[in-house]
């Protein structure tokens, strides 16, 4: 695979990253001086990147389909021996759609945050981190090799950590930030080792060279490399078994949850797998693992999401579950790559829409997040209600909203896998659709309909200001139309990246039946939820059966992590500390004392007298001359 | 009487040196003919112009590869690169030397015999913008260094050695503060320097006796000829090496370094740490690679032992230093050891790596000493380490910048300290000198301790009553610091352009 060099307008793609990065630097370094206008600079920087992104996108469209890629080598980043890493960028159809998603949705969320963070004293810093995130995310999708990707990967991890713990004086936010950071490290270590493996086996990390040479590797090597990349992807995207950090990340300000933990960063794992499609397609076992992770996670997300009462956590578990669908798609391979990307983009719109809607609700309700304490908000928040409804209908897959066009094909593709596993994955996806409809409807009804269940200090809910509702309206439009628009255009657009669509296997049940089933199950789930929660719900947690209790406890995954990793980890640490204190420190301290002692003794030779200096030089000269002569006479060597 | 055949002279190739020497002579005339008050700006401008013009002349002839004036001067890749390096680093040193706003009357005193703090001294400091003879002296020194790296016969090399050493001895004696310490340092430097020069000259005589010629190509031809007396060769090589090892501050010929670095006016210390190092290693490279290439297997172990000793002495003694300038002096000794490791690779990577290291280290050390000039109390610079405790609270920008430079010295990635160490160590492994690299890495770890101790003191201590203030640097010092820090960062992140430049230059002519 060869990429064309960037020419014309496309040679400016580095600006996409540079603009938000410079803006972040300005906001951080100017300090309080930028407090008055800093947030507008932040918005402007992302908007400028969006406009540039549009220009580049359309110049890319103007090229021949075979030529649709632009590689820009900025400088030789690492050059050691045979190892060369470019500081290079690649703007191809896949990167293009991500750039538009990141900067487009990013601009709207930045705008929204101007209103949302208005009374926060740290607003300038917030926008600096937010810009930093956008720059890092763009680097992640625009790099032309895995090291660049890793650079961006760590950058978004940093920004995510900073923003989750943005209100770091709250212990829960600080803990959530740490949890996200630690769990991400597990995934990042996998990704890093995967990249080392590329160095070791292929001698390069440039995309074109890696993908061109994958066929030369043994299938075990590909499997291990792919599993390591998958570990990285699972960490960043909150997939099983590294899903536990994502719901806790909701401790950050709501715009952060919308942009980073719903629309963009958490989809980086999907991007990684889609970008590495040559590696993942090369090994069927690998694909099966990806599909299984996706299917398992989408069910976990749905089940836990149905039992939660915190509006943002329900949405977070729904994100986990929707990304599970995307993993399912990229794991299926072939034409399903494009389907996963379409779902990713559509999800970016409707999930950002709902998160911002949730933020708007919290804004009008004194930061209340418990859905048992909402109800009937439709009356007070017309715009929030209407736009949230679009997001809700989209995610549960009601035609003709976007979720229908993006999710239904993935379910259908799962049924087309070609052997008995079609049933397994297809039914999981279908069941997930029903559960999604159930818990999202529960969320929607409890929040906007039914009787009012407000707490004492929340008697007067109010609609949010214009600056917050306008982004909501635009995102709602995206939730309505994006799926249909993309389902016809995107597969062809991405063909240069994923290759032509192969003839797929016969579906185990007819396509039309799947479509009908999908809608029926969704409507059934939604109807059930509507019936159950239309009259409100109990204000306290009620005793419940085994399944619900398990779901409330996150299916005991936290307990599992604690028992299997945390406790043994603590014991291991204690043992190591003991060993360190007794063994290693003794050695180290001994060496340190030795160095210090000899230093003190050697210092005495530095008397300050010229005569002794001259003597030491003379001694040195005698030794040097003597050594040379000794060598010459054959005494030494 | 026969016609005397004059050697042909390529003035173009010599132009950079001629410009500096000419400007230095003009500078002396300015001292004589212009009024005291206007001398400083004139001299400063002249100095900048001369260095810049010489640098342009170096750039113009970047592709010249020739030997001129009857074999006395070789203008080849390393010459051009190292001359350029000396000029750039010299320009930055000149900025530090020209600074007059941090201290009343500047860091140099014109009449050293006046008692410090007396009426006359105060009057002198108030009236005059300080000693201006430093500029022509600096230009002479820089010119001598440029000739030193270009010298293609042993006598020219000796003359160049003296031309740049004598002005440095003088410059060391001119500190306004701690005048006696400064004069003592200059005298020590002079005595020991003469001693080392004598070794060098004696070595030249022995090598002449061995080869019957003084040009490096004649020596080379004689070295590969097995018929001659090897005793003369090895004794001569050893003594020439000793002369150069002294200038490069390699153990056990480094003993002058801490005293002189501490006593000399700090801008001059910066000049010595950056430019003298380039000149000394430039000449060492030329001697070893051009003249004595034929006996490389014989001198490699001896010089290798010296490199090990130097790294150990520099690192170990740095641990217990209590004075900032002495700490930096020992760090400079250890760095000379790392440079020698690069030299002993004895391959093209070694040559290019050493040249890269010289430039990278030069910028960092200029910035470090430049910052030392800013921490002051009523008695001038406060160089005792204890006085620096808690500066991070009082002057965060200063402390952060200094921390960055210390991290560069410690060889942390994303600084030039990492890339340059990597370059020389990589070359040495390639050249089969893994044992030197092992010692190098171990001593780097030792050295990290004193650096990080300073970082800890800067940031984790509370500032006390006696914590000195950080002066606001004048324009010149600020510019020098910005250049030094920026280069340290840039060469750490994007070393490729300079590495390519050194690779293109890594070929001597014989």
TrEMBL record, chain B:
Per the UniProt entry, the Enzyme Commission number(s) are 7.1.1.-
* Residue spans crossing the bilayer: 12-30, 42-60, 80-98, 134-151, 187-211, 231-256, 268-289, 301-320, 327-346, 358-375, 396-415, 435-460, 472-494
Q: Where is the NADH:quinone oxidoreductase/Mrp antiporter transmembrane domain?
A: 151-446
Is tRNA processing one of the keywords UniProt gives this record?
no
For this UniProt entry, what is the primary localization, expressed as one broad class?
membrane
Q: Where in the cell is it found?
A: Cell membrane; Endomembrane system; Membrane
User: Catalysed reaction(s)?
Assistant: a quinone + NADH + 5 H(+)(in) = a quinol + NAD(+) + 4 H(+)(out)
Subunit-structure text: NDH-1 is composed of 14 different subunits. Subunits NuoA, H, J, K, L, M, N constitute the membrane sector of the complex.
Q: Which PANTHER family match?
A: NADH DEHYDROGENASE
Q: Which family does it belong to?
A: Belongs to the complex I subunit 2 family.
The protein, known as: NADH-quinone oxidoreductase subunit N
What organism does this protein naturally occur in?
A: Paractinoplanes lichenicola
């Amino acid at each position: 695979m060869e990429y064309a060099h960037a020419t014309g307008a496309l040679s400016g793609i580095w600006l996409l990253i540079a603009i938000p990065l410079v803006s972040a630097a300005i906001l951080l370094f100017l300090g309080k001086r930028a407090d008055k206008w800093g947030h507008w600079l932040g918005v402007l920087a992302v908007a400028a990147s969006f406009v540039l992104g549009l220009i580049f996108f359309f110049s890319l469209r103007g090229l021949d389909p075979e030529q649709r890629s632009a590689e820009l080598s900025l400088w030789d980043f690492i050059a050691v021996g045979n190892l060369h890493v470019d500081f290079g960028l690649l703007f191809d159809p896949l990167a293009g759609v991500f750039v538009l998603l990141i900067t487009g949705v990013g601009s709207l969320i930045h705008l929204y945050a101007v209103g949302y963070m208005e009374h926060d004293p740290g607003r300038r810093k917030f926008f600096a981190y937010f810009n930093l995130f956008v720059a890092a995310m763009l680097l992640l999708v625009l790099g032309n090799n895995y090291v660049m990707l890793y650079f961006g990967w760590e950058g978004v991890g940093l920004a995510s950590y900073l923003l989750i713990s943005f209100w770091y004086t709250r212990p829960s936010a600080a803990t959530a930030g740490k949890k996200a950071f630690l769990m991400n490290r597990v995934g990042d270590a996998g990704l890093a080792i995967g990249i080392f493996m590329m160095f070791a086996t292929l001698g390069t990390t440039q995309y074109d060279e890696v993908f061109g040479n994958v066929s030369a590797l043994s299938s075990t090597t590909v499997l291990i490399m792919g599993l390591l990349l998958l570990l990285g992807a699972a960490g960043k995207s909150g997939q099983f078994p590294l899903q536990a950090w994502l719901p806790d990340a909701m401790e950050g300000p709501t715009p952060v949850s919308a942009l980073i933990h719903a629309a963009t960063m958490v989809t980086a794992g999907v991007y990684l797998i889609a970008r590495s499609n040559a590696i993942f397609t090369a090994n069927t076992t690998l694909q099966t693992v990806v599909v299984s992770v996706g299917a398992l996670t989408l069910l976990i997300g749905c089940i836990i999401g149905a039992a939660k009462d915190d509006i943002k956590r329900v949405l977070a578990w729904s994100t986990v579950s929707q990304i599970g669908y995307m993993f399912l798609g990229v794991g299926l391979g072939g034409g399903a790559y494009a389907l996963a990307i379409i779902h990713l983009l559509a999800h970016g719109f409707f999930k950002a829409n709902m998160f911002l809607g949730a933020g708007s609700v919290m804004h009008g309700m004194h930061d209340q997040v418990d859905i048992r304490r909402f109800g009937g908000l439709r009356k007070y928040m017309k715009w929030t209600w209407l736009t949230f409804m679009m997001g809700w209908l989209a995610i549960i897959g009601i035609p003709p909203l976007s979720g229908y066009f993006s999710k239904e094909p993935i379910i259908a593709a799962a049924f087309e896998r070609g052997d008995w596993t079609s049933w397994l994955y297809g039914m999981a996806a279908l069941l997930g659709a029903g559960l999604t409809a159930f818990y999202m409807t529960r969320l929607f009804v409890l929040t906007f309909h039914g009787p009012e269940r407000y707490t004492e200090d929340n008697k007067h809910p109010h609609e949010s200001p214009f600056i917050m509702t306008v982004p909501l309206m635009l995102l709602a439009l995206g939730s309505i139309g994006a799926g249909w628009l993309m389902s016809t255009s995107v597969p062809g657009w991405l063909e240069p990246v994923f290759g032509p669509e192969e003839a797929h296997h016969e579906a185990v049940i007819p396509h039309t039946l799947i479509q009908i089933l999908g809608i029926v199950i969704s409507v059934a789930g939604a109807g059930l939820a509507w019936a159950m929660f239309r009259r409100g719900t109990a204000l306290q947690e009620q005793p419940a059966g085994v399944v619900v209790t398990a779901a409330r406890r996150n299916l005991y995954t936290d307990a599992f992590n604690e028992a299997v990793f945390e406790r043994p980890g603590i014991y291991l640490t204690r043992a190591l500390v003991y060993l360190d204190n007794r063994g290693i420190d003794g050695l180290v301290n001994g060496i340190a004392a030795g160095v210090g002692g000899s230093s003190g003794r050697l210092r005495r030779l530095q008397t300050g007298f010229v005569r002794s200096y001259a003597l030491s030089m003379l001694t040195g000269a005698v030794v040097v001359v003597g050594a040379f002569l000794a060598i010459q006479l054959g005494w030494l060597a | 009487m026969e016609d005397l055949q004059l050697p042909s002279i390529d003035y173009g190739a010599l132009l950079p040196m001629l410009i500096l020497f000419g400007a230095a002579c003009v500078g002396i005339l300015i001292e004589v003919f212009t009024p005291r008050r206007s001398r400083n700006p004139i001299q400063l401008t002249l100095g900048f112009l001369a260095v810049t013009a010489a640098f342009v002349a170096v750039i113009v002839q970047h592709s010249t590869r020739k030997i001129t004036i009857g074999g006395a001067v070789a203008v080849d890749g390393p010459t051009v690169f190292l001359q350029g390096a000396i000029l750039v680093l010299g320009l930055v040193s000149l900025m530090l030397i020209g600074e007059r706003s941090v201290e009343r009357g500047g860091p140099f005193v014109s009449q050293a015999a006046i008692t410090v703090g007396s009426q006359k001294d105060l009057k002198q400091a108030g009236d005059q913008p300080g000693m201006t003879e430093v500029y022509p002296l600096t230009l002479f020194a820089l010119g001598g260094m440029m000739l030193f790296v270009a010298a293609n016969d042993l006598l020219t090399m000796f003359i160049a050695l003296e031309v740049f050493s004598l002005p440095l001895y003088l410059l060391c004696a001119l500190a306004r503060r701690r005048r006696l310490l400064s004069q003592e340092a200059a005298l020590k430097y002079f005595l020991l320097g003469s001693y080392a020069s004598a070794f060098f000259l004696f070595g030249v005589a022995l090598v002449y006796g061995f080869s019957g010629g003084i040009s490096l190509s004649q020596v080379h031809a004689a070295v590969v000829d097995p018929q001659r007396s090897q005793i003369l060769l090895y004794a001569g090589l050893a003594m020439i090496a000793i002369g150069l090892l002294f200038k490069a501050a390699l153990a056990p010929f480094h003993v002058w370094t801490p005293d002189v670095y501490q006593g000399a006016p700090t801008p001059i210390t910066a000049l010595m740490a950056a430019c003298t190092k380039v000149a000394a290693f430039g000449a060492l490279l030329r001697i070893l690679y051009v003249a004595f290439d034929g006996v490389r297997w014989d001198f490699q172990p001896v010089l290798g032992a010296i490199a090990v000793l130097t790294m150990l002495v520099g690192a170990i003694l740095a641990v217990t230093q209590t004075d900032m300038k002495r700490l930096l002096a020992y760090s400079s000794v250890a760095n000379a050891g790392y440079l020698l490791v690069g030299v002993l690779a004895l391959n093209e990577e070694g040559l290019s790596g050493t040249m890269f290291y010289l430039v990278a280290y030069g910028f960092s050390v200029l910035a470090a000493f430049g910052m030392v000039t800013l921490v002051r109390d009523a008695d001038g610079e406060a160089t005792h380490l204890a006085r620096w405790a808690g500066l991070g609270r009082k002057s965060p920008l200063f402390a952060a910048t200094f921390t960055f430079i210390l991290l560069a010295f410690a060889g942390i990635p994303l600084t030039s300290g990492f890339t340059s160490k990597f370059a020389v160590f990589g070359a040495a492994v390639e050249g089969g000198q893994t044992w030197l690299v092992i010692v190098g890495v171990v001593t780097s770890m030792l050295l990290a301790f004193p650096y990080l101790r300073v970082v800890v003191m800067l940031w984790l201590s509370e500032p006390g009553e006696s914590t000195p203030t950080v002066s606001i640097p004048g324009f010149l010092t600020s510019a020098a610091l910005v250049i030094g820090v920026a280069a340290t960062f840039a060469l750490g992140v994007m070393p490729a352009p300079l590495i390519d430049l050194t690779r293109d230059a890594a070929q001597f002519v014989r």
